[in-house]
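re the bet — no i am not wrong, look at it urself. input seq straight from the record:
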Amino acid sequence: MLIVHHLGKSQSERVVWLCEELEIPYELKCYARDAKTMLAPADYKALHSIGSAPVINDGGLVLAESGAIVDYIVAKYGKGRLTLGAGDPDFAPFLYWFHFANGTLQANLGRLMILNRLSSRTTIRSCLQPKRASTAPSSLSRRGWAKRSIWRVARSPRPIS
């Protein structure tokens, strides 16, 4: 059985959300961060050599990194749901938006949180201001991608308490 090791305030929330969305059986093991340091506890760090979150166990497999875990779960348990094949004309844009959430957006939101602690004048708009014009929003609305269920895999989940 798939075991999801959930560390509070981490990327593991999206893995739990994905398992729920796919309605696959899994066991959830929850771990709390140290209240002072916000670091993972020793028993969580022992799961993977770098102590990153999330981590899953599937049979003898131990896998870390949320993007790799999402790809693995969708490929192994998804039965074609929540993804597109390489032959689909929307495959490349799907990959872009899938990785945008974890790469560009999340990194900028992290910077924003740091900047907000330093200055109350920073806004999300200034941190996410594109450096050049993009056609992504118009092409997104033109093709109606935001309404397609395959894009659920790229969206961020609500936090698990």
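see?? Residues 91-118 form the longest helix (28 residues). told u. also The chain has a mean pLDDT of 79. so pay up
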